[in-house]
Structure formats: structure tokens, C-alpha cells
């Protein structure tokens, strides 16, 4: 698990192993990670709005993250790192699975993007602080969520912006995200463990304990004819921005 010592390990080894087996197919939009390709533009719409609200000069900029640093924790094969780099950021991606990092680095090189990728736990990396920190669909795979968020907060520079997304723990998410989605193959079987999902209230309290306050929050919902979209309905999945309190 990289340079992390035992006390800093928050990603369960079996979770890292599960996703590492998917690394080679991560960039196939019709492969086992197809759901991530479909949700990525929705996440990016929220992230761009959050960037524009956070930095006064951003709304007028084609590359609003130029001159800024970004860290994606649990980066997988780089689906979020690459659009952040295209917005101008100097991007670092960290993932507990070395296979994911290798796939991410190879893809970035292939499309001509200079992104630094590192394998291991974020707590074990000597990488300093970042203007933007993102971690999408990660905290539900973490054993000690409070420790993980303390590690996240430690990476956020003063005046920085944090973006998190995660499934909500509701009856609807149990039925649709865990049951139906795995049954029809929308996500690989074993992706989600419903009891590890975090509600918005729980996550806001955990963030507060880590010295962070939520600044915006939207649901990521789905409906026939519209597909995945930002919504006021938080029952399946939600995405939020936060900053130091």
C-alpha cells in the first residue's frame, strides 16, 4: 500500500484489489466501467460551477485552473485527472491500486497530458498541499472515514476547494445502485457495499470534524429520457464542494 504505515491505511486492501482487476478496461466507455464514463460529464459540470463560484477570475477563463495545483485521491485510471489537466491544473493522481496508476499514466501519455500519478495511500505521500482536491466515489470504500477525511483536509491548501461525491445510504440506493445496477451489469458485481454508504448529514458532520464546511451540494440522479443529471434529489448519489471552515 505505497508508503503508508499501518495506522494510515484507510482503503481496504480487498477494495483496492477489486478495482485493480478492472484497470485494463477502465478507459473502455462500453466496458465494465461504463457507468463512470456516463457520470463523469455530470460531475465535471458541478466541478466547473464550484470552481467558478470559488475563484473570482474563473468564470471568464477557458482554463480556470491555470497556475493552480489539483490532487485527485482515488484517481482510478485518471477519468477525472485528465479533464482537470485540460482546465489548466498541474494534476497529481493518487490511487491505492498500482495497476490503476499504470493504466492512468499510459493513457495520459497517449493523449499528451502531463499528469503525475502515484500509487499508495494519500497519507503516505510527501506531496504537500493543493488548491483543488477531489475524491469521487472513494469514501464509501474507506474503513476509517474520519481518518481519511483528516488526510484529505491536510492536503487542502488555505483557500483551497474540495470536491467529494459518494452514494447516499437510502432504500432507493440499496435497490438501484446495489441490487438492480449489479444485476443488469451496469456496474461490476461487488462494486458497492450499501452499509458503507454515507448520508449527506453524516458526511457534513465528518467534514466539520476535519475542519471543513460544505459550500454547495447537488444530487446525481437518473431518469428515463434524461439519463444521469444534477438534481435536488440526493437519494441515490450526491456531490459537494467544501473549504476550510
From TrEMBL:
- The reply to whether Transcription regulation figures as a keyword in the UniProt entry is no
Where does the chain bind S-adenosyl-L-methionine?
43, 74, 95, 136
Listed GO molecular functions? Answer: 2-polyprenyl-6-hydroxyphenol methylase activity; 3-demethylubiquinol 3-O-methyltransferase activity; polyprenyldihydroxybenzoate methyltransferase activity
Alphabetical UniProt keywords: Methyltransferase, S-adenosyl-L-methionine, Transferase, Ubiquinone biosynthesis
Task: Name the NCBIfam families for this protein.
Answer: UbiG (TIGR01983)
The UniProt similarity line reads:
Belongs to the methyltransferase superfamily. UbiG/COQ3 family.
| Protein name in UniProt | Ubiquinone biosynthesis O-methyltransferase
Task: Please name the source species.
Answer: Erythrobacter neustonensis
Amino acid at each position: 500500500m505505497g508508503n503508508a504505515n499501518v495506522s494510515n491505511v484507510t482503503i481496504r486492501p480487498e477494495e483496492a484489489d477489486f478495482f485493480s482487476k478492472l484497470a485494463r478496461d477502465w478507459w473502455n466507455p462500453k466496458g465494465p466501467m461504463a457507468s463512470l464514463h456516463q457520470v463523469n460529464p455530470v460531475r465535471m459540470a458541478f466541478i466547473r460551477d464550484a470552481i467558478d463560484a470559488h475563484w473570482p477570475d474563473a468564470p471568464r477563463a477557458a482554463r480556470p485552473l491555470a497556475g493552480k495545483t489539483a490532487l485527485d485521491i482515488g484517481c482510478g485510471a485518471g477519468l477525472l485527472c485528465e479533464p482537470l489537466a485540460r482546465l489548466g491544473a498541474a494534476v497529481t493522481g493518487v490511487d491505492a491500486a498500482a495497476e490503476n496508476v499504470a493504466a492512468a499514466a499510459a493513457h495520459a501519455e497517449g493523449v499528451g497530458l502531463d499528469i503525475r500519478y502515484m500509487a499508495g495511500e494519500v497519507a503516505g505521500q510527501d506531496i504537500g498541499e493543493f488548491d483543488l482536491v477531489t475524491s469521487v466515489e472513494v469514501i464509501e470504500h474507506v474503513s476509517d472515514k474520519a481518518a481519511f477525511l483528516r488526510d484529505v483536509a491536510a492536503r487542502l491548501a488555505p483557500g483551497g476547494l474540495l470536491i467529494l461525491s459518494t452514494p447516499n445510504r437510502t432504500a432507493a440506493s440499496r435497490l438501484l445502485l446495489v441490487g438492480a445496477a449489479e444485476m443488469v451489469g451496469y456496474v461490476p458485481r461487488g462494486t458497492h457495499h450499501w452499509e458503507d454508504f454515507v448520508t449527506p448529514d453524516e458526511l457534513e458532520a465528518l467534514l466539520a470534524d476535519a475542519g471543513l464546511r460544505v459550500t454547495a451540494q447537488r444530487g446525481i440522479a437518473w431518469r428515463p429520457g434524461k439519463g444521469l443529471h444534477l438534481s435536488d434529489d440526493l437519494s441515490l448519489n450526491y456531490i459537494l464542494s467544501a473549504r476550510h471552515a
